[in-house]
Amino acid sequence: MSKEDRLREILNEVAQEIAGAQSNPRTWLSWMVYLLARLEEQAAKAGSANRESYVEMLSALQDEIRNRARTGGWN
To answer: What pLDDT is recorded for position 19?
Structure first.
């Protein structure tokens, strides 16, 4: 199994755990914020270039969320 496949498997398990613990999607916001904060910490540990890249990723994520809201699907 590749690293990417293993990571997808882990994220699928996390999504199931969150949904199982809190069935209302509105309550998942705090978990999304928590995850993004942990990822930001990891980017900052790796240096300022990665911190800047993280901020760029957040901008791209905003675009993806806007597209999802507009089209009803993920790319």
So the answer is: 96
